[in-house]
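Protein modeling request. Please complete all fields; requests missing the sequence field cannot be processed.
Requester role: graduate student
Desired output: 3D structure, token encoding
Chains: 1
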Amino acid sequence: MIIKRSWIYILFVITLTTYSIPVKAQLLKNSYFRIYRAEFILGTVTQLRFNPDFTYSMNIIEIDCSLCDHNELTKSIDKSGKWFQKKDTIILENNNKLLILGNTIIRPLYVIGINTDTLNEKQEKITNKMIGSKFSDFHLIYDTYPNGIARVIVDRYRMRRNEYEIEFDSNGSIKELRYFWDKKQRKNIK
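Delivered output (190 residues):
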């Protein structure tokens, strides 16, 4: 009887200590927050930020579509809310899913900015092809150390030729600076 009570007590203590420790999501690992960018979603450049308090925000930072209604695009794409991670999938609070393809790439498993509730069969095939394409992939552009100092800043994947990557030490000093032109690394910026 005493042994049974002690096991119950041990399990109770383990449960309390396990759930009382603040747990960071696997996506963030040892980062304070991360920002990802998709180069072309409905004619926009879109950023996605994940915070350690399990909140996210998706915002348009640039609209490249001159004939589009900018207000309507902003309403359909700009979102914020809660997120959680289950293995290699990020699930947003509206049950939309993002697939983690690697440390630096996230692919949406839904079409961003389009209401898919009223699609016919032909439109559904088109949206499924859009989901499988690389155009809506989010690439890591800003990663931080646990104290909030920038770890990596990447200005690539924006359909432009001038690109760079900056890597920082944990004290904030520049560790490495790399320039790219037309997807090839260069010694100097062109």
